[in-house]
Amino acid sequence: MTETLPSTADARGTRVVNHGVKRQDSLEKLLGKTRYAGDFDVAGQLHARLVRSPVPSARIVSRDATAAMDVPGVVAVLFGEDVPNNDIPTNTAGIKGRPLPPSWVLAVDRVRYHGEPVALVVAENTRALAAAEALVDVEYDVLPVVSDPEAALEHDSSEVHEGGNLLSQWRIDRGDVDGAFADAPIIVEGRYEAQVVDHAYLEPETGIGWLDDEGVINIRVSTQEIEHYRRIARVVGLPDAKVRVQAPYLGGGFGGKEDMTVEPYIALAVLRTGRPVKMVWSRQESLTARAKRHPVRMHYRTAAAADGTLLAHDIQIVSDAGAYPLLSGFVLLYITLNAAGPYRCDNVRVHSRAAYTNNTPGSAFRGFGGMQPVLAYEAQIDKVADAAGLDRVEVRKANAFEAGDRIPAGQRIDTAVWLPQCIDAVLDAIGPRPVPSSPEHRVGLGLACNVQPYGRVAWMNDSASAWVGCERDGGVVVRCGVPDVGGGQVSSLAQIAAEVLHVPLEKVTVHFGDSARTPLAGRTTATRQLYMSGNAVLSAAEELRAQLVQGVVKGTGHGAADLTLAEGGVLTPDGVVPLAEVVAMCMANGVAINAMKTYFAPTGEPVRELVDSERIVPDFTFGAHAAYVEVDTRTGEVRPLRYVAAHDVGRAINPLSVRGQIEGAVVQGLGYALSERIVYDEGVNLTGAFYQYAIPTAADCPEIEVKILESGEGVGPFHARGIGEPPIGPCAATIASAVEDAVGARPTTLPMLAETVLACVDEGAAR
User: pLDDT tens for residues 131-150?
Assistant: First the structure.
């Protein structure tokens, strides 16, 4: 039936969606009532802790837990041979024809990075735990350390794993790159390097597990993926259905809780002892041993015509994967896809490689391969503009993708590209240049753009399921396995259901993040949940809406064409039937009052090492950022003064949440640009405390203005685009551009520490 919008809809055509509504979790978080995974305790619980390797590369000669077991209160000490299935299958992409090495739950004969787990201690209390941890005796035979990714790829390098240190590589070869360079009037070149950074979430890795009356291991854990229950079950040797994972609200994830953290160790301890077990990683553990953002080295050569038209890119990229594969192959694929940026170029050659080293493993982090290349491709387009004597803004606009163009990897862009509009939005809003605070200070304006895919790679056959139903009192229930990592995922699903069913938002309850009680929706990563789970809820709610109308047809005798949904019920020629009565009519007449739907993402063929495919990712989000910074030419300090970020979000389900995502991403991106880094000394992580890791504080952050653009052409529900990850991408390039504008030379290595900036001051003065 064709449905007429009720009078409660505003000029946007919606009642709830596309409105800045209060999130369902906002009040309890504001009042400090939200219970995170670490806030749960169970009577009689034990505590667990890992014994970690103090060296980055060694053979394990011997292990002895005798002294540890003698500590009063110690219940168990487990080594690798005590784990039913000690290897964790790799979830990544590697070299075709070569099996990837697994990650180990507990190392048995070899450690490959500083902090790798070698034993699990379980005790009655944390005092006994600490004492026993120190008494677990592990003898190491230290081996050579491989710490530099480029050196790791040399033929004479020591091997982190048998078979060589090349984990993965991807290539793009589009057009005639060599011919374009041979004839190009403008050729620019640059080398760029991005550092290792940590997720630095407030909530460390934590969880608690217990056995229920049916012999199911229940784990309540801070995670971005409840579907790890299958991997946990394999580790402990149980059927999948004998493990249940619950994900309460997270105190931050950013990709750092996409891989398993505490889960297998809790499950092992519960299975061994039969008692509840809690594990909380210390901040030092998290900073030392948790997977990090990949450091990347990039070499770019770019050819252009005299009018600034991009003719060719020749790009070489090396990524440090660390000691184990994790998600490094997929991250490298996204780096490769994004290497040329949001600009049209017919001739592109990219060769990217990920190398094993004895550094901490790299894995998912907000931006997932879309972030590191922005530093390089935005610098290259500025160099092209300068070499051509043209305005940098106009060169960007002239080269920007348009709908219908193909990215260098072959996929066609089927939705709107509002990159010029984003550029105009930030430049219109940035305002006049501030006056420097002293003669020794200089103010610069920076601009950077980016493109970021959202959704998982197409050949993974991604799907998400949701159930939507009505209660007898007229309430609406949504069940969906989405983990809410703080981005408002649950509230967005409530808005979608409320919109479709024309019920007040407060009448919608969402049950989420439980592998046994909610339909599975996949991991909260890759900016995929609104797109995937949102479409699943939309489809289920639409089916439920049709059921409600059918129930009123059978209950009243009115035709479907005479009915429409109104606020909290169904409008008939006789008036509004409240939803509770509609539900009663459905039940009395054999009409269902719930629907479960699965949304399947468009699929594509698996990409090969030479990437050329019609469908690799679902869609793209575009954006532009601008900022003023003040540079102290005496000290090298860079102080952001004002920041504007604009992104086309397709349609904002909740503009307040969108604004929060963009503002948070900018702050995180400023840390990446200016201060954050993990420091290693031959594979040993020297950064073990927050006081050593310079996260931006409120005092370090400028005024941030957000411009939400809505083309209405995303592939998510109500044509939304993903926005969780894209806003972090342009930050470092924006600041680098602003520093260059201020002092005359551009930083090319992150973070832009004082010594880096002072070198730019000297270089600029010498020009």
Answer: 999 999 999 999 999 999 99
